[in-house]
């Protein structure tokens, strides 16, 4: 194994006292102060995240939209210019290779954002699927950084950031005040164009900014300075994980992997079996036949939310069991994929795959935590929804 890569913001994290940890082939900030403080800051004010480890693949050419319709499970040709869509790339058997966000950031141009650990695989798989399409793929991640501002004060912080301005020539006709959720626009920072998406992985309002590696430190510092009066703090991977869990968002390698199709994960909505060409014929895409068959078959397991009735949290790979007498461990009915105490809600929460017979809301189950059956109950996901203004 080679040495973990460092983002353009690595020295900033070290200077801020961050605890660094290997993640997806990168050395990333785990926390700066405390997990709880960073989590609460994002829920109550805002957090600043370095996401520069994420993959970014530029797809251009006359057939870019048709190619992505073929290569991914989503209906990408229906994404409006300056729009964004959550999607997945699947294998022929319908299993998930990665979950992605696709930005339609210019005419005939798309950005495919992949998870760090899967970025090389996604680029390779997309390359294998280009036959017959007039497209060009380019890995643009090495020259870029990705910074996210997440939280209820995020929009105010963006507007207060020195050097970050709107530019009608590159905004796609969108004013920042009118930018919708899961849409993007061009802005400028210190004169340099950058892409801003109203997207995120925390369950809060927020923005993700793609900027050149050369401008990354200046933008990071400008956002920190602008955000300080609003309660913004730098936040690490630990807070990002607890935030996404509360929001019920899947993490590749936990809820999604090559043993799972989107349907087991409760994400069948992203699979567009209804894709058709201009003449009305169905658009074949990689994994379509397997996914169509899977949609019609009863599931062997279902992803559910679990709310703890005690204080001990479930963790990934703990077994979900039938609730027995007292702390007695019953028959195994599933396995936890992600679990933690919820800082916002005040009780343990978890995502788990269980058999369909015990997946109904309100079903009382337990999790085997070191030989002791801890009581949990099946609840709807997400566990947390941000207040709507």
CATH class of the domain at 5-54 and 142-246: Alpha Beta
Global mean pLDDT: 96
Any idea of the CATH topology of the domain at 5-54 and 142-246? Gyrase A, domain 2
- Give the helices and strands as they follow along the chain: EHEEHEEHEEEHEEHEEEEHEHHEEEEEE
Structural class: alpha+beta
User: Helix fraction?
Assistant: 10-25%
Oligomeric state of shown chains: single chain
How does this model look, in words?
The chain is of the alpha+beta class and 389 residues long. Among the domains are: 5-54 and 142-246, 2-Layer Sandwich (Gyrase A, domain 2), CATH 3.30.1360.120; 302-379, Beta Barrel (Elongation Factor Tu (Ef-tu), domain 3). The protein is 19% helix and 34% strand. It has 8 helices and 21 strands. The protein has helices spanning 10-15, 35-44, 64-71, 119-128, 154-160, 213-227, 237-246, 288-296, and strands spanning 5-6, 19-23, 26-31, 46-50, 55-60, 83-90, 96-106, 109-114, 136-139, 144-150, 164-166, 184-189, 192-197, 206-212, 232-234, 302-308, 319-323, 329-341, 348-354, 364-369, 372-379. It has a 7-stranded mixed β-sheet with strand order 11-12-13-14-10-4-15, with helices on both faces. A 6-stranded antiparallel β-barrel has the order 16-19-18-17-20-21. Helix 2 packs across helix 7 (237-246). The chain is globular, with a radius of gyration of 21 Å. The termini are far apart. 47% of the residues are buried. Substrate binds at residue 208. Residues 301-384 form the Aminomethyltransferase C-terminal domain. One of its GO terms (biological process) is glycine decarboxylation via glycine cleavage system. One of its GO terms (molecular function) is aminomethyltransferase activity. This is Aminomethyltransferase.
